[in-house]
Amino acid sequence: MSKRVYQPGEAYDYQLTIGQLLETPKFYAPNQEIVYRDKLRYTYKDLFVRINQLANVLTDLGIKQGDTVCVFDFDSHRYLESFFAIPMIGAVMHTMNWRLSPEQIIYTMNHAEDDLVIIHKEFLPILEQIKDKLTTLKKIVVIADDGKMPETKLNIEGEYEDLLGKASPDFDFPDLDENTKASTFYTTGTTGLPKGVYFSHRQLVLHTLGLISIGGCYDSPTGLSVRDVYMPLTPMFHVHAWGVPYAATMLGIKQVYPGKYEPAMLLKLLLEEKVTFSHCVPTILQMLVGSPVAKQVDLSHWKVIIGGARLPKGLAKAATELGITVQAAYGMSETCPLVSISNFKPHMFEWDKEKQLDILVKTGIPAPMVKVEIVDPSGNPLPHDGKVTGELVIRAPWLTPGYFKDPEKSKDLWRNGWLHTGDVAYIDEEGYIQITDRIKDVIKSGGEWVSSLDLENLMSMHEAVLEAAAIGIPDEKWGERPMMLVTLKPGFEDKVKEEDFKEYMKKCAEDGKIPKYGVPDKYVIVDQIPKTSVGKIDKKELRKMYH
Questions:
Q1: pLDDT greater than 70 at residue 128
Q2: Domains of the chain (ranges plus CATH)?
Q3: Catalytic residue (choose from 43, 136, 152, 187)
Q4: What pLDDT digit, counting tens, does each position of 377-397 carry?
Q5: Residue 187 designated active-site
Q6: Rounded to two decimals, what is the model's pTM?
């Protein structure tokens, strides 16, 4: 750990490192609250001390610059402390997706070369099962909400709170180069092993500034400001909870961490802590909106950004009717994740609510410092006319440089200086992006492309539909034909049949909302639609089931 010595007259070489995000709240909000479930609340002043204590614990356990620390926890204040302490000592934070299979967890921990793991005791059985196959892991720190160490055969260094309690509240953090690697995590694709993306201190700081500016300076319907109370509904292992904890901390706002996602606890925190700002995938919002309790409480103070998958207009309308303010945003694991958000332009604030809703469900306008284009298969730019579709490509200062230790997949990700998203989109005359599909999910019927997302969006507007998924299934004549799967809202089980949905989609085609060849031939009512580990509709699994 070294500090640079400056000579008289030599200007300070200011580096964009994560620790700089803590300077403003030290002065602006030292007494603001951070809440964990109904178990704990402390102030930002406490947070700063605990970050120092965690840094001392890690260095005392032998963690040095360049080492990797895996965090294996539910959404908590401890995770927030790790977001800062681990990269601030020059180590790399590896956020573990605990929904992965044991084989995938083994692969990602070995591939990331984890040296130490901070793990909630609820996940210890997984670690006990795989420990002998972990090739780099040396130390284990256990988190126990109740303070009681579990019985285990694993060699444990100690319990998180106990270790922090014994550590010094002071830590002299090193001067780091802003391009030092700060974080890594793994994204699961449609095939093969999970791919590691990674980000530097500079990238995370610039992403934080971009997030604050797009939400706070553009009069965004869900804009994050110092008056908000923040609670994530996207796991903190997933793209740093979309980077919002960094932004919330820099702003010094009240933060509420729910731990394990349990509906009763989420609702309790939402109401009692007066949460105003959250973010989640459509599936989570669907569960909340569909709950009978949601209709009995006042949710008019709640703003929710939806990402991870397209926000169907039917879901947006249902949320709005409950008083919830929703809007769509877009990003990927590879993009840290902010790319765009569906903010209004000034002339749109006077529009009626229905017309505004059409904007709020769009993929959105690029955030500051983000450059986007749509290109044909040869990489040539396509017109922004709201009709022509191509692959969305991106440039921004916070995109992953590539896939960790995978040069071949990195070459496919980055071509001609653009990050290739694998998403099919158009850009309209107003500059709004609209994703129409993943390239791998586009339904190719008789030489024409049919957007599965457009089909799902239309089906979501049917009064009986809770959730919808569209896939292409093999067809001898047309190559592929669209197939629609739906789950029903409570009370509609005996009121609708598959044929009713076909008539509804035919009417949509007659009204010009989709081409006639896009009307699905087959409709299946199911109890549930399979999801990925981050709550998106699992098209890969659906294709396996119905091909």
A1: yes
A2: 42-173+180-185 (3.40.50.980), 443-546 (3.30.300.30)
A3: 187
A4: 999 999 999 999 999 999 999
A5: yes
A6: 0.87
